[in-house]
Amino acid sequence: MRSVNHSTPATTGTGHRVALAGTPDGLEQLGTLVTAALDAVSAAAAERTGPLPAGGPDAAIAAVRDLVRDGGFLTDAPGPHRVEELFEAYAGWAADLTHPAAVSRMQCAPTPAAAAAELLAAVLNQSLHSWESGPFALELERRLIAEMADWVGYGETASGTLTPGGSISNLMGLLLSRDHVLGGLTGDDISHTGLAGRAIRPRILCSTAAHFSVARAAGFLGLGRDAVVRVPADERGRMIPEEARRLLDGFAPDEVPIALVATAGTTDHGSFDPLPELAALAAERRIWFHVDAAYGIGALFSDTLRPLFDGLAEADSIAFDLHKFGWTPASSSILLVRDRARMSPLGQQAVYLNPPDDEAEGYTALLGTSLQTTRRADAFKIAASLLALGREGMGEWVDACHSQARYAAARITRDPDLELLAEPILSTVVFRCRAGAAIEDESTWNAAVRRHLMAEGKALLARTKVRRQDGQAQVHLKLVFLNPATTTQDIDALLDDVVAAAAEVRQSPKARTPQTAH
Hints:
Elements: E1 10-11, E2 17-18, H1 24-47, H2 56-68, H3 80-93, E3 102-103, H4 112-124, H5 135-151, E4 159-163, H6 166-186, H7 190-193, E5 201-207, H8 213-220, E6 228-231, H9 241-249, E7 255-263, H10 275-285, E8 288-292, E9 317-321, H11 322-325, E10 333-337, H12 356-360, H13 378-414, E11 418-420, E12 428-433, H14 442-455, E13 460-467, E14 473-480, H15 488-506
Parallel strand pairs: 3-13, 5-6, 5-7, 7-8, 8-9
Antiparallel strand pairs: 1-2, 4-10, 9-10, 11-12, 12-14, 13-14
Helix pairs in contact: 1-3, 2-3, 4-13, 5-13, 6-8, 13-15, 14-15
Keywords: Decarboxylase, Lyase, Pyridoxal phosphate
Family: Belongs to the group II decarboxylase family.
Protein name: Pyridoxal-dependent decarboxylase
């Protein structure tokens, strides 16, 4: 226990003394600032009439300009009053993720336990690149990864890491697939020798509904976005295994499939690719099987939805986010790998961080499991949320969001002004406003309805484009339910606001002008 603290608060040019957060003086200052921050959140919630203030982009830009004023962030008059002004502006203009009309993104409000853990993690500022930089944090992540591996049906040989987001988790999964498959084919360590000069064309297969991060990862890995082969999907965005087999059969001799990527929870429909069939195909062709479950992971906690994950344990790697359907602050993304030996391309020995003799004595770091060196203790906030909710609580919250989506779909079906695209699978609902004869460009009109709701601060909806049976790609609106406290009355009020906004936009001259919404 610390008995003496030798640190001295630094004094600014204005005489204000700033201490480091972990010192006695710093903790006192922190307590005052935390109270101010919570007061700012409470005040913003009391003043807000929707999930966002009205005014749109111009008002948000003006709010930042008013905060910074002359002198910029390196102000000549620093101090707690300026920090409190920052808190007030930030809270006032933050999207309120607890508001029932905030249904635009896969972005959940966190549990109080996770938020408190995030604060403590920031105060103590542990890192995972060397043992002494965060001993408990490091061992906590190891234990959490082991438990998560058990969730998905992996055995004791599994490993993994926390990452800054699902896109990075997918990137890392494909990095491991590249090095494993091509290393086995060539006998080389691809992470050392690289790909230059090889007479092969690596290929990654994913569905037409897969996340854009798959193609972007291929570009980052030196394979090129053109290395991604899009497999046709059915009307709900699920990969068709027979089409994947057909494409594989048509590859030229120099085309080498290195990964088959399945999606478990597409961003629009929440659809799951047929995991058992795709796992069997990947095993037959000796292709790395990666599952992107960034959104769909919530189904794993639900007794009702868990069967959607049949076949998951056969994946070579799995990416998922608990900042989407897990009520932890971003970033809380995870990559799991069925065989820890296949994480060897990430291995790194640095004499000043993880020297071999230290490692031999148990002072082991996590430097060799990540693309990052300095890395936050994100497992801490995840552990806090899990310990606060438990498996049953997580399952109840997932089921509540699923029920909300089903109710919203039924309500949309009954409304003559709205059209449902399909029944929800997880917690997303895709629909559109019916335009009628007065609207020449239905896509532009639906996009304008969404912006109108945002500008007024009444509702935050997502948008997407869907190719309909007539072959035309049209803008649709999307609701993403991640707040288990939302009621059926909240949903009715939200959809009433959508219908009212559609009527208001219909009267606008812009709504009658043919345009193209992308």
